[in-house]
Request: fold
Amino acid sequence: MSDTVSGLLTIGVLVAALAASHLPLGAWLARVFTDEHHWRVERLVYRLCRVDPSSEQRWTTYAVAVLGVSVVGIALLSGLVVAQGALPLARGAAMGWDTALNTAVSFVTNTNWQSYAGESGASPLVQTVGLTVQNFVSPAVGLAVAVALVRGLARSGGATVGNFWVDLVRGCVRVLLPLALVGAVVLLLGGVVQNLGAPTTVTTVSGGSQVIQGGLVASQEAIKLLGTNGGGYFNANSAHPFENPNAVTNLVQVFLMLVIPFSLPRTYGLLVGDRRQGWAVLGFMATLWGLMVAAVTWAEVSASVGPLGAMEGKEVRFGVWSSALFGASTTGTSTGAVNSLHESYSALGGGGVLFSMLLGEVSPGGVGSGLYGALLLALLTVFVSGLMVGRTPELLGKQVGRREITLTALALLVMPALVLVFTGVGMVAPIVSSQMLATGPHGLTEVMYAYVSAANNNGSAFAGFSADTPYTNLTLALCMLLGRFVPIVLVLALAGALVAQRRRPATSGSLPTHTPTFAGLFVGVAVVVTGLTFFPALALGPLAEALS
Amino acid sequence: MTNVIKQSVAGLRALLVLTVLLGLLYPAAVWVVGQTVARDQAAGSLVSVDGSVVGSSLLGQQWSGDQWFQGRPSASGYSGETSGGSNLAGSALGDEVARRADAAGLTVGAVPADALTASASGLDPHISPAYAVAQVERVAAARGLDATRVRQLVGAHTEDRIAGFLGEPHVDVLELNLALARLTAIGRG
Reply:
């Protein structure tokens, strides 16, 4: 069998699995967030947290709760990381204060950028009770915010958008935990390790020595992918054979990254009472994902005709096709796990995974953040097309007025502003250029990739960049914080503005938002906005490198 | 302001409760499953010779001497303490590959790609079947074995794509070398 047939079959199996799962999972998610009843374990959690699960919150309280749990999360996690040397299972792991802060922000914002190497930076205790917990909580926060926005569209003339604590706990208990358990057991059977053994040194066959690591890896790995987190137990992330031992576990990992983001359009359709709306969003996400997979695969396969076969930074068991599929999916979902080194990709392949993030993490995006990102672009598309044909811009009977479009535009502008400002500063600041591995256009791509990854809460890296210095740790942490929470607050404000509106009946003057025409326009707006914003920077980086 | 404090305190309590559920009970449950149905995988698929662990079938290791099949170049020297790759690209990668070729006595373009490229993990346990075949003559000569016999051994250790289409055909270097050592021992005995 040729590599091409094998690669296409692999993608075919993945698409079939996603097609089979998105309807039941999407329906389950819709039920989870509308169910009147609380599970017994959830009641216990609410009692311990002293929150009233039957009360509803206005968007302001909802936003305060999101920020509250996140600020406390950053404080607890950075404290745990700083103190790890004095706690059990320390095993010599250590981070400086700036790295600890960067790591805490990174895991709480669902970015999972890692300035540290897993083997030496984080103790098993930190990995398990610190990082694994945020790997659940941060996607559950994203899910909650997305559901709040959908409630804004679905409810008519209301004042409240839900109860954050109920949404958070249900996301963890009913969605992420059961799926992660199944995923972890599958990965474990495939060979991913799960033990508490200390690193042991063995004498190898030809007389050398090698340290063999242990760790509770399988449990961390499943939620790393399912929650579109991406922070590896080991430095090499999903390229490490203990995290991702073979082609089957690799396919399972790609599936886990995509399954919730691709199911959420169905949830959206069900919650707004019009499944066709969900199909339009799914069509938008799937088109962009398909285009990015095709582009990255084409770039890497084209590069593989040379004597090096495009195999630098790739594993033999995955080869070029499964590496490119993973690369396009991890950057399109805001996961940021890697099974191959993006910095060693061809100029266009590296530019492809960068572009995949620059789209704003909507192809299909992170858990929750992908859906609210896509809905922001849908509002923008409605507005633009309304202006073009002279109709009142509205989505699902909710008018996109001055307040709504201002909030939408601001939310969409946060990421480009952070990326361009910090990359620009990085290019002139000697403190940054001394940390670059590459020079010339590849060096620009390396620095830009870091800030794009942070501002989009992706977490993958052009890993030659030595990011573990106070300046980079702090600026990247700032990008992660602002890139996550400014859009979240704006999205919740938008939910508040929309929920207050009465739903207007559709008239012959309304623009339908479920048609293929609309979905096409939707894709066009995403690509044009990204292209216009970033073309100059891309021309100086990956495009210049590809042409030279 | 009271609302901010109230919600933050609820956040603190929620995180503590969720830590018990997701940070302790969940990993413990997966650990128990590992201990009952997948002990070998959970421990790291360790490989023993005469009762002592010599490595993991999932991790590549450094092989010194012409009598062993060589794995791929590793940016981390197959260290288990710092996994990772070179992160090189473009002309910097070209220079590094030329250096690797010099050190190994190989010619760029005359050997399979994996012979001169470093993996992402630095611990790649596999090489391509083509690179294994390319090493047969050297290994057979160094061990005084019949090349046909060694070639057969490579064939027996070549694993096809999983289910016929997933991943790439590959040879596990540790398993191949252990079989080679047994073959040599029999030859001497």
